[in-house]
Amino acid sequence: MTRGQRFISSPDSSPSSLLSRSSSAASISFLASQSFEKPARAAGGSVGCLSLDVSTESSALVDRGNLIKGEGDTASPGTLSPEKHFIRPRYLPAKQQFFSVDLQHNEQKYPLGHPKRVAWGSMDISNANYGNLAAFEISGAPSYPQNSLGKAEWSRRKSGNLEGHHLFQEEEDPRSIYINDPNRTNEKYEFTGNEITTSRYTVITFLPKNLFIQFHRLAYLYFLAIAALNQLPPLAVFGRTVSLFPLLFVLAVTAVKDGYEDWRRHRSDRKENNREALVLQGTRFHLKKWKDIQAGEVVKICADETIPCDMVLLSTSDPSGLAYIQTMNLDGESNLKTRYARQETASHYFECHAVFGVITCEQPNRNIYEFTANMEFNGVKFPLSQSNIVLRGCQLKNTEWIIGAVVYTGQETKAMLNSASSPSKRSKLESYMNRETLWLSIFLFIMCMVVGLGMGLWLVHHHDHLDTLPYYRKRYFTHGNDNLKTYKYYGIPMETFFSFLSSIIVFQIMIPISLYITMELVRIGQSYFMIGDKYMYDSSSGSRFQCRSLNINEDLGQIRYVFSDKTGTLTENKMEFRKACVYGKDYGDAVDLEDSLLKSNVLGTKKYKLKSEVAVDTELMKLLHRDLTDEERMAAHEFFLTLVACNTVIPISLDDNGSIDYQGESPDEQALVAAASAYGYTLCERTSGHIVIDVNGEKLRLDVLGLHEFDSVRKRMSVVIRFPNNSVKVLVKGADTSMLSIIVKDTGKADGLACETQKQLNKYSSEGLRTLGVAAKDLTAAELEQWQVRFEDASTSLTDRTSKLRQTATLIECDLKLLGATAIEDKLQEGVPETIESLRQAGIKVWVLTGDKQETAISIGLSCKLLTSDMEVIVINGNSETNCRKLLLDSKAKYGVKSPYASSENWSSKNITEKKDCELPDYLKSTKTLSSESRKGECEIHGSLALVIDGNSLVYILEKDLESELFDLATFCDVVLCCRVAPLQKAGIVDLIKSRTDDMTLAIGDGANDVSMIQMADVGVGICGQEGRQAVMASDFAMGQFRFLKRLLLVHGHWNYQRIAYLVLYNFYRNAVFVLMLFWYILCTAFSTTSALTDWSSVFYSVIYTSLPTVVVGMLDKDLSHRTLLEYPKLYGAGHRHEAYNLHLFWLTMLDTLWQSLVLFYVPLITYSESTVDIWSLGSLWTIAVVILVNMHLAMDIQRWVSMTHMAVWGSIVITYGCMVVLDSIPVFPNYWTIYHLAASPTYWLTIVLIIVIALLPRFLVKIVCQTFWPSDIQIAREAEILSKRPTGLPKKDERSS
C-alpha cells in the first residue's frame, strides 16, 4: 500500500488505526513485568516494586481462568483485572499520511477517527524474560521489604500468583502540561525546576547532618557518652581534651571522606545544571541553561546532544517522525532505540507558528519503560506511550534534530528517580562480631562493678582513717590556703557510683572503636586487589571486576548456595539459528553452500550481505524457491514472513555494497531475522507504519496495522499486517506451550501437524536449544473491525490500559494456523563446567533458576556438568496444590527425606559438616544439609539426586504451606533446577533457603529479571552481559564471565574471610589485654581508678601504636597461594566450618588474653618491687611492653611476610618509642624524662624480653601441639607449599575430604 491510498478499501469496514512504533526493546521485556499507572504507595515506596514481576507461570493462571477463548470470546474482566501491571502495546503516530484526500468526506462514517501508527516494541524472548524488572530494582532500591509485608502477602508475591490481589492503588490525579506555556503549567501545579541536586550537604548543613548520620552507629554514641562523662569534675580520669581525641579523630576522618565525596557531587551538579539547550521563546529557539528549563517548554535537541529533561516528541528531522536514541546513561544498553513523534504533531512547523496543546500524563514514577498519557493538539485528542517520550540522560543518535515538549524536570525525571543506591547489606561475620561485642560489654560491666564495689568496701573498711591514709584523704595536708580544707567528698554511696563511672572511662577501649575504621580500610584494600586481579579481566568485553559494595567482602568466603540464571550467565546469550520445523518437517542439516552451481540454483542472486553469515539447509531453500501453489510452500512463506515482521529489529546499512546489520534488544530476534535473511527474506526497511522485505530480490511492502507486545501472561507477540492485495493477517510467535494452546484443533490435519511439531520441539529442547512457536491467521473484515474498535478503546485508556489491551489480543490470537517452530542455540560460556565442578567440590550447592522450558534447562544442565548421567532426577510438575503436595510427599517418602525441623533449634547445614563425618563421599560432605545419620544410609542406596521443578508448581508451593516440604526435598538433593520461573519466584527460592538456614547465599545473573534474586541473596553478583546493566547496577559485585566466580569465591573469598576473621579476633585481644592490664593495676591501688600510663599513651595505643600492622596484615596476608586454593577447592570448606572465627576461638583468645595481661602486669611489678622507680616509670615500661607484646603476637600468626608487613609490624614499635621519647621530653608531663632513665638500665630490656617469652610461651606450645597432632586442611596445604613450590604432597581431590 502506498502513501495516499485508502486505509480500508472495503466500504463497510472502518479504518484501522495505524499505530506508531516503539522500538525500545527494553520497554517490552520490562513491561512484561511492570506496566502500571502508578506504583503503590507503600512502606518505603518499594512495595509497588514487589508486584512488578509476576510468575512466568501466570499464563497457566490465565489458562485456568479461561482467558483464551474461542473466536470472538474475551476473558472476563474479573479474570484479568488483578494483572493490570503487565505489558501494553505502544502506539504512536508518524508524519507519513496514509489516507487519501477523500477520507475527509468519510470521517463521520468511521468511528475510530484519525489513523495512528503501530507501536513497535521489542519482544523479549531471550530466556522468556517475562519482563525486565521494575525501575525500582534497576535503581537499586530495595525490592523486598519483607518487614513491611505480612507473611501471606509476601508468599503471594514471591509465588507469582497475583490473582485476586490489587497491587496498585487507584490512579492519582494526572498532571496537565500546556505546550509552550510554562507559566500556565507551573503556576497551577508548581512543578519542580530542572536543576538537579545529587549532593547531600551544603556548607551550612554539612556539620550537623554529617554528625547525625555518623552517630547512627551505636558505638559512636557509646564513646560520645564516655567523653561526656569524662568532662564531669568527679569523673575526670583523663584530661578533658585527651578524652575527646579518639572520637574526634574517627569523626574527622569520616567527615573529610564524606566532604570530599560531596564536593565532587557539587562540582558534577554545577557542570550538569549549567549546560545549555535550545528552547522555544516566542517564535525562535534560543539557548537556555538546563537548570532554567521548565515543564511545558518546547526544546530542540540536535544530533549527539544529551536530553536535558523528559520530553514528549513533537517532531523530528525524519519525515516519518522517527528518532534514534541511545540509553547508555540510563540503563547501560548501548544499542540504539527508536522513538516516534505522533503524526498529528510531526508535520507542524514550530518556528514562526503558534503552538497550542495540552498533555495529560501520569504522575512522575521510576518506571523508565512505561509512559501513559494523552495529548490534545489542534483540537485532536490521541494517546501517548513510552515510544513517544525521550528521557533525561539519553543521547540523540543518527537523527539531525528533534523537538519535544517538557513533561518532567529535575528531580522528577525518571533518571533522577532511579538514582537511588542499592540496598545496604551487612556482613554475617559482622553480626557475629556484634555478639562478641556484647560479651565484651558484659566483661566491661563486671570489671566496673568490681571496681565500684571494691571502692565502696574499701571506704567502709577505712572510714575512720580517711584523713591519714596515703591513697585517700578527706582533707588537704599542705601549706597555704588549702591546708586542712576538705575534699569534695560525696559520701560512700556516691563515691562508689562515681568510681563505677570512672572505671567505665578508664576501660572504654574494651569496646574497640578503632575496629570500625580498621575494617573499612581493610575492605577497601581487599577491593582494590580484587579489582586489579588480571585473572578476572574479561578481554572480550573489556570489563574489569567491580566491587560495588564494601561491606560484605568476607561473606564471599562462606557461600553455601549459588543461585544462577542460565541465559547470559551460564550461556553467552549470543543466539545462533540452528534448526526449524516448518509444516511439521524438521530442517536442520545446515551447509555452507560452497558449490557455486548449488548457490546459483538455490540462492539465486542475493543483494544483501549479512554482517555474520548463517548456514542454511538446502532442502528448506529448495522449498522456498518453489511456486506458491501448494500448502507446504505457503506455510514456509508465512513462516519466514513472521520471523521478519513480528519483531522490533532495526536494519542498518553498513555500506553501499549491500552489507546490512540488525540492531535489536533481543538476541533471539536478531538471530531469527538474520536467519530469515539467509533464506532470502531480508528485512531492509522499518518505519513507523510499514516494513519492507526483500523476498528473493523482490521488494514487498507490508503495512503494520497494530502490534501486541510480548508479555509474561500471554508469552507471545503478535502483529497485524496488511498485504499489498489488501488481505490482512495476524502473525504470532511465542513460547511453544503458549502457542500450542491457541492453534486450530479438532481437525485431523491440524492435530497431526501439531503432534509432529511437538515432537520436533521436544527433540530441540533435549538438545539444549531454545524454542519458539510460529503461527498465523487470516482476519476477516468483521474480525478486523471488532479488533480495531477494541484496540482503539484500549489504547486511549489512561486506566487499566494493559489489561484492556491483553483482552483485545485474545480476539485475534485464537484459532491460529500452526506454521512451525524455531530452534536457537545459546552456547555455554567458556569454563562453565569446570567452574561448577569446582564449586561443588568446595561444598557449594549450585541451583539454576531459568525461564527456559524444562527440557532445554535439563540439556544445558547436562552440558555444563551440573547434572550427571548417574543422577536420579526428581521432577515436580504440579498443576494444583493437591498435586504438588502429593508429588513432594511421595518423593520425600521414596528417598527417605526427613525434616530438619525435628530439632527445636534453628537448623543450619553447619551442624552436619563435622570433619569426623568421613563415611560420606568427599564431595557430598560439605554440601549435604541433612543430619548425617539420615543421609548416610540413603547414600548407600541411592546415587546423587537432582530436583527439577517448574514455575507453575512454585505458584502453589510458595503461596501455600508447602514451602517446608520443598525445602526438605530441595536441600536433600545435590542439584536443583527450576524452570519457567518468573523474577519474583527466583527471589522466593532464594528466600526459601535464606529464611530457614544460617547458610550464606549468592545469586548471579545478567538481566533485569535477575535483579530481584540478586538483591534478595546475601551476596549479589551481576554479569556484564548482553541484556543491559540492570543486574550490575543492583549487584554487590560485577564481572564479565561466570567462570570468574570460581576465583572470586575460592581465592578472594577465602583470603578475605581469613583476614577479616583474624582481624576481628586480634582487635578484641589487642584492646582487652591493655584494659586488663589497667584493671590489675587499679585493684592494687585501692580501686582508685588512677592510671600509671599517661593520658596520651592511653589514647595513642589504639589509634597510632598498634593500628597500622592490623590494616596491612588484613590487606596483604595470605595463608595459601591462589594456585593451591584453585587446585584443591575443598579448602574453601574452612569458611563453612567457621574455622577462622567462632565462639570457641573467641573464648580461647580471651583466655590467652587473661594470661598475657597477668604476665604483662606482674612481671614488671615483681621485678621492680625492691627498687625505687616511680609509678610513671612503670607505666612507661608497661606501655612499650604491651605494644611489643601485641605485635609479637601478630607476628606469630602472619603467614606471608612481605616488605610492607615488616615495615608495619616493626615500624609500629619504632613509632611507639618515638612518641614516648617526645612525650617524656615535655617538662609539664609527670612522666618527664622517665624513658631516658629506664633505657639506660639492662633490667628494663631484660624485663621486656621476659614479658614477651612468658606471655607467648603457652600460645606457642598450643600452636605446635595442634599443628602436629590435629592439623587442619589449611595447615597441611601450607606445609606442603613450604616443602615444595607445588603442593605435591597433598592428596588428590578425590582422596581426601575437607
Describe the structure.
With about 1300 residues, this protein is an alpha+beta fold. It contains 45 helices and 36 strands. The strands form seven sheets. It has a nine-stranded mixed β-sheet with strand order 14-36-35-34-15-30-33-32-31, sandwiched between helices. The protein has a nine-stranded antiparallel β-sheet with strand order 17-16-29-28-27-26-25-24-23, with helices on both faces. A hairpin with a 2-residue loop joins strand 24 and strand 25. Helix 16 packs parallel to helix 37.
Low-confidence stretches: 1-171, 592-605, 901-941, 1292-1298
Q: How does the major sheet shape up?
A: 9 strands, mixed
Please state the overall shape, judged from the principal axes of the Cα atoms. elongated
C-alpha-based Rg, rounded = 37 Å
SSE-based structural type = alpha+beta
Read across the widest sheet, the strand sequence of neighbours is 14-36-35-34-15-30-33-32-31
Q: What is the share of helical residues?
A: 40-55%
How much strand content do the residues show?
15-25%
Task: Tell me the total number of β-strands.
Answer: 36
Distance between the termini: 73 Å
Mean residue pLDDT = 76
With helices defined by DSSP (H or I, 4 residues minimum), what is the helix count? 45
